[in-house]
Amino acid sequence: MPREDTPEVAPFESIEGALEYVTCLLEACGETRQQVQTEIARLKEARLARKKDALKLVDYKLERLASHLAKSERLLKDLRRLRRIILEERETLAKAASA
């Protein structure tokens, strides 16, 4: 339970926080996919065909998830870049107005 005098930080409080979170998820997805692929390669017995098929489906789903996370990561980077451009323009206009 969080203490009342400690501010609670949300993981998506900023674009940078969301980007960091998505990047961590993308890395974890890649690591998990490697483990699944290793397990698929290890399964050679015919009686384990059903488990191998299930792992292939898991691998496919992880591939799709990684694709979506990579797209989200690019979108967040674009948003961060656009925010910086907007803030720089505001600063330039503010300096020009005060001069």
Q: How are the secondary structure elements laid out?
A:
Layout: H1 15-42, H2 49-98
Helix pairs in contact: 1-2
Task: Summarize the structure in short.
The chain is an all-alpha fold and 99 residues long. It has helices spanning 15-42, 49-98.
What do these coordinates show?
The structure is a single chain. The chain has one domain. The N and C termini lie far apart (51 Å). By secondary structure, it is mainly alpha-helical. The chain has helices at residues 15-42, 49-98. It has 2 helices and no strands. Helices cover 79% and strands 0% of the residues.
User: Which secondary-structure class do the elements indicate?
Assistant: mainly alpha
Helix content: over 70%
Number of distinct helices: 2
Shape: rod-shaped
Task: Tell me the fraction of residues in β-strands, as a range.
Answer: under 5%
Q: Based on DSSP secondary structure assignment, what is the total number of beta strands?
A: 0
Task: List low-confidence stretches.
Answer: none
The whole-number mean of residue pLDDT values reads: 89
Distance between the termini: 51 Å
Rounded to the nearest angstrom, the radius of gyration is: 22 Å
| Major pleated sheet | none
What are the secondary-structure elements, in order, as H or E?
HH
Number of spatially distinct domains: 1
